[in-house]
Amino acid sequence: MTKTSKIIALAALSFAAVAGAHAEEYQGVVAPVSALSRAEVNAQGVQAARAEQNLEYVGQQVAAAPAAPRSRAAVQAEAVAAAHNPTWNLDAKAFVNSTIPTQYTQGSLATYNKAGL
Asked: Which residues form the signal peptide (predicted)?
């Protein structure tokens, strides 16, 4: 290396050190900006936690009993029919005009799905 390139490299390193030496100053702890006392905030939190509309998941709600419960046989028949449905995993929005083609319900693809049952 020549003397000039060494000087340029040293100048670049010193410039990088000076540029990186600036740090943010510590401003201290920020004071809270609230007009409510700790007890008032706690009371609001308890009230919000007990509110029914604040449930995070729908599954946390207690379902009401059905007005006219179905028989066990009817539910089982519906489950068997759903299990034998060849289009159970198809989304109609994935097809043209949002309709499932007939080959999935009545054609060779429908009989292929039933072969494993």
From this structure: 1-23
Distances (CA, A) of 111 to 77, 86, 88, 107: 20, 8, 14, 7
Could you tell me if residue 16 is inside a domain?
no
**Per-residue pLDDT tens digits for 78-105:** 999 888 877 777 887 788 788 777 777 7
Query: Is 63 a domain residue?
Result: no
Per the domain annotation, does 36 fall within a domain? no
